[in-house]
Amino acid sequence: MIRRMFLKTASIAALAAVGASWAGLASAQEVTLRFHHFLSPAAPVPSQVFAPWAERLAEASDGRLVVELYPSMQLGGSPGGLYDQAREGVVDISWMTLGWAPGRFPMVEVFDLPFIGASAQVTSRAAWRFYEDHLTEELGDVHVLAVHVHGPGVIHMNAPVIEAPGDLRGRSLRGPSRLVNRLIEQLGATAVGMPAPQMPEALSRNVIDGTVIPWEVTSAFRVQELVDTHTEFSGGRALYTTPFIVAMNRESYDELPDDLRAILDEHSGLMLADWIGSAMDAFDAPAREIAVERGNTIITIEGEALAAWQEAGERVRAGWVEEMQAAGMDGAALIAEVERLVAEELEAN
Questions:
Q1: What's the pLDDT score for residue 10?
Q2: Distance between CA 272 and CA 344 in Å, rounded?
Q3: Considering only CA atoms, which of 122, 115, 111, 135 is closest in space to residue 247?
Q4: I need a labelling partner for 65 at 20 to 30 A (CA). Which of 88, 102, 233, 287 fits?
């Protein structure tokens, strides 16, 4: 929860005597927010977004709004529990992949579906707009500072290289969420669900043969060292993306002084989602270059070869639409809405 440092005051009677000066005391309140997440501070989003974001908030508030960053699960718990840490007030703010809570946020899963997202920035802007129209109730037990996605997912494996879905038969592949794992199974592999921080050890111990993850974060987990082949996808739509949330405890947000709440609002929402997406896109190429320099094999699935992958993706989509229909929701309409938003953002950019 929020930790506050108030100017010294005398007594309730003294405060009553000064009357109108109370507003001045409240505006001078200093607030410290604890922000907990799962990546190292050197990873792209923590270093290029969260650290400068905290600096901007401090500068805009003349040092009265302080965000303390706690990376790499320093405050304990598991990556999949970060949403609840913010919801319950264990921390003030957290950042996590929503897919680490499988089945809990059904409408958010639309962004996990195959071949629906584009770049991280474009799709993150679409994700925020979708949140405003459709997800405020589903994510209503926290104050949402940003909803975004990572960039296009890539298959990273030990040789032989994956060129067709059949090449995955008999192999195990780490996935980040329920629907991505379903796609992995549709492609013929054994899906192993786990949060990203557990992935390097699983690769190094040969618990899994490979992983799906965007290029941007591979350096943080040494993926280029732990595998030697990489399979990308062309066509303007990602094999998959994964939705994330920057969640804030509601009480922590509501108890902010009005002026500090206004500053936080100004530096969150679409602006923050766009910033995170942009940073993720910017680090795809440098991370990919590390694999090139190591001599790893990189191939791109395109043209007619892409059709078999898309067919597997369509089966995953159809299954999700049926699930949503059984739950009383129009999954096909949600897919159409996301595709429209992504197309609009692509046109605008």
A1: 39
A2: 19
A3: 135
A4: 88
Task: Report how far residue 349's alpha carbon sits from residue 345's, in angstroms, rounded to the nearest whole number.
Answer: 6
Which amino acid does the sequence have at 164? Answer: A
Structure tokens at 348: 């605008």
CB 99 within 8 A of CB 178: yes
Residue written as token pair 């990308």: 232
**pLDDT tens-digit map of 100-159:** 998 899 999 999 999 999 999 999 999 999 999 999 999 999 999 999 999 999 999 999
Res. 5: pLDDT tops 80: no
Closest listed residue to residue 110, CA positions, set 272, 341, 348: 341
Q: Is 204 helix (H, G, I), strand (E, B) or coil?
A: helix
pLDDT at 312 over 60: yes
* Relative orientation angle of helices 270-293 and 120-130, to the nearest 10 degrees: 150
Helical packing angle, 178-186 and 306-326, nearest 10°: 130
* Contact predicate 119/277, CB 8 Å: yes
Residue 19 has pLDDT above 90, yes or no: no
Give the distance from CA 199 to its chain's centroid. 17
Backbone angles phi, psi at 308, to 5 degrees: -65, -35
145: exposed, middle or buried (Cβ count in 10 Å: 0-12, 13-18, 19+): buried
- 79, containing H or E segment: none
- In the numeric block, which tokens belong to residue 3? 């930790």
- Is pLDDT at 11 greater than 60 in this prediction? no
Q: How many CA atoms lie within 13 A of 226 on its CB side?
A: 21
Check residues 326 and 17 and name the one with the higher pLDDT: 326
Within 8 A by CB and 6+ apart from 69, the residues are 35, 37, 41, 46, 50, 51, 54
The predicted model scores a pTM of 0.90
Query: How far, in Å, CA of 219 to CA of 49, rounded?
Result: 17
